[in-house]
Specification:
Layout (H helix, E strand, L loop, with lengths): L9 E7 L4 E7 L2
Antiparallel strand pairs: 1-2
């Protein structure tokens, strides 16, 4: 599988342990 098909585009999970929640987002950064 090629990694450069969608450069800088991947699912990222942001977790906030202080708040006790997590969510999944697509990052373009």
């Amino acid at each position: 599988m090629q990694q450069d098909k969608h450069p800088g585009y991947r699912p990222v999970v942001f977790r906030d342990r202080a708040a006790g929640y997590a969510f999944l987002t697509r990052s373009t950064a």
